[in-house]
Amino acid sequence: MVRRPASLRNALTKAAFPKPPRVLREMPARFTSRLHDERVASWLGIALGVSVTVSFGTGLVSHFMQHPAGWMLWPSRPVNVYRVTQGVHVIGGLATVPLLLAKLWTVYPKLWQWPPVRSIGHGVQRLLVFVLVGAALFQYVTGVLNIAYWYVFRFYFTTAHYWTAYILAGALLIHVANEGGKARRTVMTRPHDTVHRRGFLLTAAGAGGVIVLTTVGQTVTPLARLAVLAPRRPGTGPQGVPVNKSAAATGVTALARDPAWRLTVTGRVAREVTLAPAALRALPQHTARLPIACVEGWSVEANWHGVRLRDVLALAGVDDDARVLVESLQPSGLYRTSRVDPPHWQDPLTLLALGLNGEPLHLDHGFPCRLISPNRPGVMQTKWVHRLVVS
Ligand SMILES: Nc1nc2c(c(=O)[nH]1)N[C@H]1C(S)=C(S)[C@@H](COP(=O)(O)O)O[C@H]1N2
Ligand SMILES: [Mo]
Fold first, then answer.
1. Cβ of 194: how many Cβ atoms within 10 Å?
2. How many Cα atoms sit within 13 Å of 319 on the Cβ side?
């Protein structure tokens, strides 16, 4: 701790904070539970530290898969990487909420300490704790609201959640540097009292476990029936696959049903190609069993039927290192296009799907044609495709 000259300390405590207000003088009497204690706070802190670190790592994967820097080439295999990292991110994050609440409850008497600031060092430390708590609450609250489609916030979720993650990670790092040693020593020594910490900690962990059990079915299909808290479940929606954005919601219905629909390949190509539905069906047809893995944590595996993207690009004669922008009929919206890099478009499992689970593609799943590719966020599995622009 930073030591200040006694005169400055006295000035801070005596002059600035002469006497605590009455509510604060009476407050400590209300914190009767012995669970507001160092050991409980330490265990919860360690669990939160691990969980936030995992969320940060999986969150970065999610961000850079969706917004790859120019030099980043994500592999297309194993097909389920994104499904697993994003499932861990969302379900792990949900399970952490009770731990965070338990931790805040445990330490909240410290909020009322008097004087609020004892020295400059103490003031900086407290400020960092406020940043830590604020960033953590922001991440968990916006995360939960986002998967519940409750967009009460005015800002764009993805950007805010991404940048706040760095604030949270930085504040956590400093917090671990300040308190980590103390927490480690605390949990390493044996307690000699009769405080019932174990019951409290197990309750918080159990609440997290219940959340996992009631949401994991949104991505682990055999547990779908347990997924009572999950916003999306396998088996719901047309052709057994949930729909996020319907054709009606995006205003593509008329365009998608237009008999004049054609798929065109343009940009840096040897020859432009225009394919009618019959021409697409005349190309070699393939089936790929691949998941739709939404950023919101749900995922569903399905059988997709259609033509290989690489076969279509070969007709136009594209370079091996080409990048392809897949464009939707959708007139506007963030997810009307997606970029497909060589590892993905060269993968034989990457299809322009014309069918799903043995039937022609449903309008809400992207009829007449949608992209489906392994190890890729759901938002990049573009529906109602009509143009491939090569660069
Ligand atoms: N054109 C277009 N494609 C899109 C979207 C969209 O809004 N517009 N949503 C994406 C999202 S967020 C997901 S999770 C998947 C969902 O696919 P599904 O509706 O076939 O299940 O489609 C993706 N493709
Ligand atoms: Mo999604």
1. 6
2. 7
Helical spans, DSSP H, in 117-156: 120-147
Instruction: Specify the pairing of strand 351-356 against strand 324-328.
Output: unpaired
Query: Tokens 């997606």 correspond to what residue?
Result: 338
What pLDDT does residue 105 have?
96
Model confidence pTM above 0.85: yes
Residue ranges of domains in the chain: 11-226, 242-390
Q: Is the pLDDT of residue 132 over 80?
A: yes
Tokens in use for 249?
A: 């919601």
**Relative to the CA of 377, which ligand 1 atom is closest?**
14
242-390, which class in CATH?
Answer: alpha beta
Mutate to test the pocket of ligand 1, among 335, 364, 365 (most ligand atoms within 8 A of CB): 335
Q: Residue 374: is it exposed, middle or buried by C-beta count within 10 angstroms (0-12/13-18/19+)?
A: buried
User: What is the mean pLDDT of the segment spanning 244-252?
Assistant: 94
Q: How far is Cα 119 from Cα 74, in angstroms, rounded to an integer?
A: 49
Cβ of 299 closer than 6 Å to ligand 1, yes or no, is: no
What end-to-end distance do the CA atoms of the chain give, in Å? Answer: 57
Q: What is the band of 3 on the pLDDT scale with cuts at 50, 70, 90? A: low
Q: 326 pairs with which residues across the strands?
A: 338, 388
Better-scored residue on pLDDT, 360 or 20: 360
SS3 140: helix
Confidence of residue 6 (pLDDT cuts 50, 70, 90): low
Beta strands in the chain (DSSP E): 263-267, 273-275, 286-293, 299-308, 324-328, 337-340, 351-356, 359-360, 370-372, 385-390
